[in-house]
Amino acid sequence: MYLPLTAAIGPFAALLMYCGDMLLYFTTGKFEVDGTLKPYFGIMAKLPDWRLKLGGLLGPVAAFFYCIGFCHIALAAVEEYRVVAVIATLILSLGIIVGGAYHSQFTYFGLIGRTGHTEGMQAVSKNVSLLSTVSLVLLALGVLVLGGLIVFGKTAYPRWFIILTPLCTYFIGFLLFRLPQPFRVVLWGGWYNLMFVIYFGASLLMTI
User: Fold this and answer.
1) Do the Cβ atoms of 107 and 24 come closer than 8 Å?
2) Contact between 135 and 99 (Cβ < 8 Å)
3) Measured between alpha carbons, how far is 79 from 100 in angstroms, rounded to an integer?
């Protein structure tokens, strides 16, 4: 009962945070990526307050539901590897909590970007970059543990299921980056959450 229920909450969480992404920086105009956060300032400085604030708020809210969704990992593991699966669940949950905090900081890109305050923008960028790094490291570690459990047959999923996890779908992002606008911002811009939509959705189908 609890396995499909938690798996079902996962896609909702990922789509909720994806909606937050689109509220914060969806644009039909140019969406160039130069390896820095500077382009986001330009996009968000033009957005209305309601989009900035609601988009930022959805990060922590979605992270809460993500944590519930990740519980399916522990429930799907075979008994003798349940502890390892719980550790993966906790690592992923911590990673997405930090990710929710990272997401919420994007609100300030727009608010400070309007002022043109260079020092303020640099300070926010450094903090956001730090949160991003911590979140990505934790999520990557958790996904690696999850991938190991699946590949070695220690979960309720078949081994081929690994191709539907972020461990593999992450690399599709390199193709999406080449898409023209507005498809680039819609798909590549929200790919981190869309990866989990795919994973959670597939998990649900495998458990119902």
Assistant:
1) yes
2) yes
3) 31
Structure tokens at 10: 């996962």
What phi and psi values does residue 155 have, to the nearest 5 degrees? -130, 180
Q: What does pTM read for this prediction?
A: 0.93
pLDDT, tens only, 103-124: 999 998 888 888 877 788 888 8
Long-range contacts of 110-114 (CB under 8 A, 24+ apart): 110/24, 110/41, 110/44, 110/45, 110/46, 110/47, 110/52, 111/52, 112/41, 113/41, 113/42, 113/44, 113/45, 114/45
Question: Taking CA 32 as the corner, what is the angle to CA 28 and CA 38, rounded to the nearest 5 degrees?
Answer: 110
pLDDT digits (tens, 9 = 90+) for 134-153: 999 999 999 999 999 999 99
